[in-house]
Amino acid sequence: MKNKFLLISYNFHPELTGIGKYNGEMIHWLAEAGYDCTVVTAYPYYPYWKIQEPYFKKRFGYSTENEQFLSGGRITTHRCPMYVPAKPSGLKRILLDFTFLLSSFFKIVSLLPNYRFDTVFVVAPSFHFGLLGIIYKKLKKSKFIYHIQDLQIEAARDLNLIKSKKAVEFLFTIEDYIFSKADIISSISPGMISRIEQKARRTVQSLPNWTDTQLFYPITDKEDLRREFGFKEHERIILYSGAIGEKQGLEYIIQAAQEFRNQLAVKFIICGSGPYKNILQAMAKNLSLQNIVFLPLQPFDKFNQFLNLADIHLVIQKATASDLVMPSKVTTILAVGGLAVITANEGSSLHTLVQEHNMGILVPAEDQQALNDGIKQALSLQNSHIAENARTYAERNLSIDKIMQSFVSTMQERQPA
What average pLDDT does this structure show over 304-309? Predict the structure, then answer.
């Protein structure tokens, strides 16, 4: 009898970045292993903040997709309507979360008479989607796994998106209730696990973000790559690729480009989509910067080549997010053997990991001069050993097969409470 697995999250394949990428790869891996997987999700919108084609015309209703695998596994994807703001704010994000909570609730209710899933896997954010997992567990006696990719309440509080102390306390009360009802709580980094264990007062399992080291690997011939993407052979490429939002602090890249404006061979690329992109473009225009290029998210079949184009990768985030969010872009940078300049404060899980394995250049978060100096260090020194360490770490620790096999063993050992 096939294991039946239900994923609840508003991010899923074909989103190429962030949580949707990992949800899609996890479900595909389980289906290849013979699982009967059902996904309750939204229409793909991230990181563009707009429903993507060919789904746009369907966005106001429900739809279902099916995929069969030679293993006997399958994926049934139920997409639910959800409000997606073109320019997300605190209030609009709350509305986004609420509309998916409501529409996915009705979809889950419709599945109750004919389906009993062995495992219900709920991904936060949004944190209160865990309530859907509790409802299904109570009605069908399923195992409920609560997986935390982002400490959403802390992030909203620390970034001043929610200013009311009573509102924050109320949200923590709901979260604590979800913790008490989950059979397994999991998260992605040692720092986040430690913080969640303090709040939940129980053990939290590790389910780190992974990478496919077969799809993402180093390419040594940089000259051909430069020509392919329209750059000159002698130019040094400094790349940020990922979501473009307020919590990253990407304005520091604009200021760094201004610092290097007279070094004509040094080019900055900001690649991706998000609500903050227009602001960054306006900043670059106001400063008359000619050494910075904005590009859209690159096609998946070209992404390995694109990442290898860079001499230096930038991993930028604000100090308040240093242990709330583990940047998903880090895993692919490590896989391609990229030299990364990373803003992470001492004591954060990202800082500890990178320092322990010597696989990046660390600089304090929200420190413009430190970032500029880190880029200068990356440009001037021989750093091939750091790139080699990055690739070695990815091969040994970030394989999706190793991570998922370990987690499936944990999942099968634990019985529903």
Answer: 94
